[in-house]
Amino acid sequence: MFRHTKMKVQVLCAALAIGSTGFAAVAQAADLKVGVIVPLSGPISAQGLNDELGIKAALKYQGSVAGHNIKVIKLDDQSNSALATRNARKLIDQEHVDVLVGAGGVPSSLAIATVATEGKTPLVSFTPIDLTGEKAEWAKTTTQSGDLMVGAVVDEMKRNGVKTVGYIGFSDAWGDSAYAALQKYAEPAGIKIVANERYARTDNSLTAQALKVISARPDAVLGGGAGTPGALPYIALRERGYKGVMYGTYALISPEFVQLVGKAGQGLIVSSGPSLVGPQLPDSNASKKTIAEFNKAFQEVNNSQPNDLFSAYSFDTILVIADAAKRVPSNVVPGTEAYRLALRDELNKTTKLPTTQGLLSYTPASSYGLGKDSVVMLELVDAKWMLRK
């Protein structure tokens, strides 16, 4: 009995002897908690599954930073922005996460950004979110902006001699954003928009929209969809005999899209980040080394090579968080309001960080950090994405 008591006293004394330095070391061992919201079910679940694979690859590549293990708490938003909002509140209020990541769709990501700002918790999204002011200070994205990507498509249309274009896009925030960018760039490029048709992500048929676009006789059509629902305009147009050139954006790039669109997608031209065509890039490309590291980590943890764009964007979210976290002062620990604020500040100072998309730099004024040098043009040839020279 006496020995047992003595042992306990020795342990207690040893703990007290750690002092301030020891306590700092213990504090640094706290997990950096990342709340991830992805659409693992619902209309864009294919995209969410790819997002999930990218997160797994990132944790394989970098599972800790500055002495903190990166702990992911994942929730499914079911492709629903209302549920994404509730998930974000749960992760902040109940799980006390240090940073949010997500979500699969633009509407959900914008909803999460609102919660993140209110909850004083930084967000790193892997979808395009057009934010300014206080929301931009708290929410960043690893993607290129829709405006940038549509602008690149219009440039390609101009090079190809397109004079008229029709549009078929989602009837939501992403569809509106893509169309607004088309309006912004088409007229200065000498291209007239002759049709603007919309559809819901849950629609199964686009017969009426396709017929209206075809009747306008455009030289080309831009699809403003995303994921597998983004294949519907191209299928409907080809089934009804449309022979013009078809364009899209990075929002379409996934193996599920390629499988669904089938022969209707042959020759489809899209603007994209470079991660999908790493081996095709010149050695001078700023992304090539990071893409190779991403591909290696992805293969190790998922037993396959990535064949989509979404997993690369989600991989980059962890790179961005880790890069900011390593600069947070060591006496500021995860799980505290001070840490979330410091992490936000360091995210806004990110400068020329190598990612799968290029060199990324943030400022407090915008949620975006990538420029024109991060964009490449791809063409779907025999169900494979090929870099257009």
TrEMBL record:
CDD domains: PBP1_ABC_RPA1789-like. Residues 1-29 form the signal peptide. Keywords: Signal. Residues 32-353 form the Leucine-binding protein domain. PANTHER family: BLR7848 PROTEIN, LEUCINE-SPECIFIC-BINDING PROTEIN. Belongs to the leucine-binding protein family. This is Branched-chain amino acid transport system substrate-binding protein. It comes from Pusillimonas noertemannii.
